[in-house]
Write a structure and sequence with these properties.
This protein has helices at residues 3-19, 24-39, 42-57, 64-77, 80-92, 98-111, 117-134, 139-150, 160-169, 173-179, 181-201, 203-206, 221-243, 249-266, 274-306, 308-318, 322-337, 343-361, 365-378, 387-396, 403-426, 429-432. It is mainly alpha-helical and 437 residues long. The chain has one domain.
Length: 437
């Protein structure tokens, strides 16, 4: 067999192993090792896997992963998410479907200090959903808003997916963070418009009881200010320090984690062995991410050795499909895979194949990365995988709440995300103008 044929069979074997339930990282390592051994020799395969482990994990940049993860977990337990929702609830309560819009904007702000969509879904399912139901919103709409707006956590910086993409594409993490600002605001606006249109034309979808007689908790200007201070301080520390040139990404993560720790300590949120549990969870998430990155790096080198990306570039770019035909196939494939596996795994499987083709097509890799992240995040809302949906179901723990009900609630927000992807394809400057300054 030729190297290209071995590489092609390797991709098929990887998909088959994942479908059979083998862990993705193990599948990638096994398939890559066997393929390199067939293309060259067992000795070359052993040396390559050792070199990959050394080259892919020794980067100073990777220290940013546990730091941002720890910051997100500390912020989650310290009650900052509830404070954020309370502030926006107070500001938007008089607008039609104002609590839904408040959830979107609170999620956007919360995303700027966590970077993990699941954390947003967990926090706001407990904070926003009961409050919205109390004020006469349908549970379907309330859970759909929380699930939909939780995707902002992986787009608005800091973002774990942006870090993973930057590493695989060899792009600047800081520039990728900047590139997420415009699309993040675009998605927040798209969600807001979706909510307003639903409130205007599909009131039965939004309101269970249009006559809202529930009282709002009164909040003075001073109370709003006190609740806003921790949020503002963290955002200025992390993003202000990063974009102001005071910190590199790793230092910004350290400053953010320290700031979140101080807030949690001042609020006495770290009781008992909770802090140790958060450290253990941070370690588990970090190790799983770094192990996946190592496996993806080995997979990428195997593909480069086989020549499969070169063959794909010739097929897509020199044939009738063309540049944007390749982009359409790529985005559809991401969204389809999002129905079955998690976001990081999708990126680690597809990007080693797609990035060389994107480079050959002359695409801006920062814009390509933003499209990748937005499309991957659609999978958080679509059945049967829908990780955000299952997170909300688990967090609420209500026996009469069906998963299908939440999925129906997310449908308008899936369409809003797909519309946003089309806008980003048509107007790449939304993602690139800030990153290129």
């Amino acid at each position: 067999m030729s190297p290209a044929e071995i590489g092609s069979y390797a991709v098929v074997a990887l998909i088959l192993l994942i479908y059979l339930g083998m862990p993705i990282a193990i599948s990638m390592l096994g398939v890559s090792f066997v393929s390199v051994a067939l293309i060259r020799s067992d000795t070359v395969a052993l040396r390559m896997i050792g070199a990959v482990a050394n080259d892919s994990l020794r980067e100073y940049l990777f220290a940013v992963v546990p730091l941002f993860v720890l910051m997100g977990l500390l912020v989650t337990v310290s009650g900052v998410g509830k404070d954020t929702f309370d502030v926006f609830e107070r500001l938007l309560r008089r607008i039609a479907a104002g609590l839904g819009i408040a959830t979107v904007f609170a999620n956007a702000v919360f995303a700027s200090i966590t970077g993990i969509s699941i954390a947003s879904a967990t926090v706001f399912s407990r904070v926003a959903v009961p409050e919205m139901v109390r004020h006469g919103y349908t549970r379907k709409f309330a859970t759909g808003v929380v699930a939909g707006s939780s995707v902002l956590g992986m787009l608005i910086p800091p973002s774990l997916l942006m870090i993973v993409y930057a590493v695989l594409a060899e792009e600047s993490v800081g520039r990728m963070f900047l590139a997420g600002v415009g699309p993040g605001l675009l998605l927040a606006i798209a969600f807001t418009i979706t909510i307003m249109l639903l409130a205007r034309f599909r009131q039965g979808f939004v309101f269970d009881n249009s006559d809202d007689k529930a009282t709002f908790t009164d909040m003075s200007g001073g109370a709003m200010l006190r609740k806003s201070v921790p949020i503002v301080v963290l955002v200025l520390t992390v993003l202000g320090g990063l974009y102001g040139g005071f910190f590199n990404p790793t230092e910004a993560g350290a400053a953010g984690a320290f700031g979140a720790l101080v807030i949690a300590l001042l609020r006495k949120s770290l009781k008992g062995r909770l802090f140790w549990a958060l450290l253990v969870e941070t370690g588990q998430i970090t190790v799983s991410v770094l192990f996946l990155i190592m496996a993806a790096t080995f997979f990428s080198r195997m593909l480069a050795l086989s020549g499969v990306p070169r063959e794909l570039a010739e097929f897509f770019l020199e044939g009738p499909v063309g540049h944007y035909g390749f982009l359409a196939v790529y985005l559809v494939l991401i969204i389809a895979m999002g129905c079955l596996i998690d976001s990081i795994s999708i990126m680690l499987i597809l990007l080693p194949i797609a990035l060389p083709v994107a480079k050959a097509a002359g695409f801006d890799l920062i814009w390509f990365g933003v499209l990748t992240v937005v499309s991957v995040e659609v999978g958080l809302l679509t059945p049967p995988f829908g990780l955000s949906v299952y997170t909300i179901k688990s967090a609420l723990d209500e026996d009469d709440l069906k998963v299908g009900e939440i999925f129906r609630g997310t449908l308008p927000f899936v369409f809003a995300m797909l519309f946003s992807v089309v806008i980003l394809v048509l107007f790449p400057s939304i993602a690139t103008w800030l990153a290129r300054l």
